[in-house]
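Sequence in, structure out. Go.
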Amino acid sequence: MNDKVYNVLFICTHNSARSIMAEGLLNSLGGGRFKAYSAGSRPAGAVNPFALTTLKAMYLPSDGYRSKDWSEFARPGAPALDFVFTVCDNAAGETCPVWPGQPMTAHWGVADPAAYEGSDEQKAKVFWDTAVTLKRRIELMLALPLQSLDRLTLQRELKDIGTR
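Output:
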């Protein structure tokens, strides 16, 4: 049995909503096999309150999150990353730091719920829908037989998940 814990980084420009929710979802759903982190290319400096409310509504921990720069994960002493996922189109098009260890990468873009303008009730629904999409993609990743897939097949499967 493989006891490896996979380190996963979710990236979004501001690291305030989508990447934070993905971090919370994977840390909860990963069953101890995964340790998720999140970061941004231009962090907002604060986590969007709707992201935290959404995690809480999903019965997931909603404290301890912070908006941080992705350079934290390219420094010496940072966790060795196995996977890096961009969850916003802006971050996908930016020049990322060089990640030590050449982790698998894929783009799992979802629309920015923080950009939605409407009532608080409407915003809450948009955040919920975004979290459900991220949850579905994370569950698909968790179902992959990581140890038995070759690198090329795994890369293709991870990219394909971003289209679902």
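Check: The longest strand covers residues 6-11. The chain has one domain: 6-155.
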